[in-house]
Each structure stands twice: as structure tokens, then as C-alpha cells.
Description:
alpha/beta, 2 domains, 20% strand
Amino acid sequence: MRADAARLNTTLDLGAATARIEVQCLLQHVLEVPRSYLLAHSELVLNATRQAAYDSLLQRRLQGEPVAHILGEREFFGLSFKVTPDTLIPRPETELLVELALQHMPPLQHPPSGRGRVRVLDLGTGSGAIALSIAQSRPDADVVAVDASEAALQVAAENARRLGIANIRFMHSDWFSGLAGQHFNLIVSNPPYIAADDAHLSQGDVRFEPITALASGADGLDDIRRIVAQAEDFLGHDAWLLLEHGYDQADKVRSILQQHGFAGVMSAKDIAGIERVSGGKRSK
């Protein structure tokens, strides 16, 4: 395992810790065991069949294919999500958006039914990771998750079925285009926010993800501008809009929110200390 981790690190420049975790993930998948089993059996020798299966997965990773695509799933907010090349791979830093969404929702309703239910909108849902994490944490919420990609919506709907989460509805919509007349207590989004000519688009895992979910104009902010400009028509009184963005975009996103009259404009830092999510509330 150490030698394979070293090969991954050398080939993909992952860092020693990340390479070791990725090798463990591949082994867990082949053996169908939890990580604790691997840690307790560090000298485990694979039989020929399992060795061949593991070698095949390792070669795919050495060629750059993301682990999430190789395994077909990724954990996010304590839940396991199916992922495909039609969706973004859920990332740990995006969990901050879910945490902030839960903090900015109205209090939990008891019982969670009737007219008091909270309405939440997730724009550009992809695999459904954000929307389903919110729906699972708040059974009193009615969550609407939209995406312009029918293929992504199919993945999200399958994740809802696999997780047994029913308080969610998926819709095909280009941002707000299919939502006329609807209003929400909270709108969240992890939209495309990378500049179209950014070199990172040709590096690492993002090479295998849909470009339409990653890039957004010359400065990466075209979709954020569009969302902010239209959001007021779909927000209830004092309802919040929360947006994930790039590591260096917080100032610009706050400015966009302020220009469109949002109140209480703020940014929050992820676990690495980077301002990763910004938002504001409808002021009128």
C-alpha cells in the first residue's frame, strides 16, 4: 500500500496523505470493508482475483481519473452520493454551504407539516448533494432542486431514492427560468465560478467534470451575477441567498449582493480559513 501511495503521489502530485487515503479507498472498495478493517490488517495480502481488481482501479487513478468516478460515489455531509461525469464531485469545502443554510433557515416546525413548512431552493443541484443534505437534516422543509442538465437531475433523483429522502422535488430549469411565481425562505447555490481561461480547468479532477458546471465567463462571475440579479423575485421577506464561490472572489460577490440591495451581506470561511460562501437577505 505504501508503494502504491508513493506512485500516486509522484504521478499526480497529490501529497502523501491524500495519496494514502486514495489507496485505502480503492482497497476498501475491492474488499468491501470499512477503513477500520484496513487499519487493523495492514499486512493483508490480496488473492489473485482481488489483486487484479485493485490493480485495474489503481491504473485508472494513475491515469488521472477521479477516485469518485472510479468508485461511483463520494461521501458528503455524512451521506453517500452517486456521482458520474455528468455532475460535479461533492467536495468537503461545500459542506460549509449546507451548514450555513441550516443556520439561516427558520426554526424547526413541530409537527413538520402544513403551511408552516420551510421552502428551500437549490440552484444547479448536480448530484443533489447540497439539496439532499438539507432535506435530510430538516424533514420539515420542502426542498426544490433545479438543474439545466437532465442527466444531472437523473443522478440527483437516484440519490434521493437511494437515501430514502422524500421531502424534495427535482425540476429542469436554467436557474430561475422554470420557477415563475414561486417563493422560498432560502435559496442556495454552488454555481460555476471559475474563469473560462483558468489553467486549473485542465488540471486534476476537474478535467473529468462538466465544464458547464465549472466555468462562468471571463472572471468566473457571470452566473453569480445572473442569480443575484433575479433572486429577489423568488425570495420571501427576510429570506437569505447563500452562494459558494472561488477562494479569491468574496469581495466581488459581496459587492454584487450589495449592488442589488441585499442586507446583512456576509462571507464565511471554510475549514482552511478561506472565505468560501457569501450571502445576504432580501431587505424589502
